[in-house]
Q: What sequence folds into this?
């Protein structure tokens, strides 16, 4: 399924944000979440980029981590990944399971979930706004730049139980393939949806 829907109200408050930040940065050579990105940690920069466009942001951290140690406010909503490093699918499933079980009204009323990688602060504000504006409970919205799909991906609530059932280290890739007919590809002029930070060379040059 391609092409955006134009009848959605702008700035949907029912979209929740979930940032995946429990990985181990092996290609980076250190904890990239702490890398400096324009005066703040990389993870904080990504979180601040998403925050204005969603009703709330939850960050998946490694087991036992505290948000303030990563440059985030102490009151940041956090889900702890399992103590055994058994893949992004398991961490994602644990986080979505917590959201589904939550009794907080903002979680219960959530219509969609924007999944964002913790090392992608370059996604533009207008791109995030457009993605959120297309959210539906029964759709998956994914941005693409010059025909290449990127992140974040917005999953309607219909797909949350399937996200909560993921395992292994493949994330939501199989889910996207299984539900191709419900995927809206949103074309954007924004290379930031493809630009994650894998090595120190991917960071902005010091001023």
A:
């Amino acid at each position: 399924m391609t092409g955006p829907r134009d009848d959605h109200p702008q700035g949907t408050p029912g979209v929740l944000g979930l940032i995946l930040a429990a990985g181990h940065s092996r290609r980076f050579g250190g904890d990239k979440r702490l890398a400096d990105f324009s005066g703040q940690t990389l993870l904080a920069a990504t979180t601040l980029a998403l925050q204005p466009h969603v009703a709330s942001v939850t960050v998946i951290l490694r087991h036992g981590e505290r948000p303030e140690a990563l440059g985030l406010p102490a009151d940041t909503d956090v889900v702890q990944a399992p103590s055994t490093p058994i893949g992004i699918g398991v961490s994602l499933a644990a986080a979505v399971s917590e959201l589904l079980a939550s009794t907080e009204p903002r979680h219960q009323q959530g219509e969609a979930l924007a999944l964002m990688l913790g090392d992608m602060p370059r996604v533009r504000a207008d791109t995030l706004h457009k993605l959120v504006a297309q959210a539906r409970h029964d759709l998956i919205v994914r941005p693409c730049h010059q025909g290449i799909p990127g992140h974040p991906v917005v999953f309607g609530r219909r797909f949350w139980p399937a996200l909560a059932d993921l395992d292994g280290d493949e994330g939501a890739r199989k889910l996207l393939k299984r539900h191709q007919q419900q995927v809206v590809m949103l074309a954007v002029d924004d290379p930031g949806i493809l630009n994650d930070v894998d090595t120190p060379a991917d960071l902005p040059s010091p001023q």
Summary: The helical segments are 42-50, 88-101, 105-108, 125-133, 160-163, 173-178.
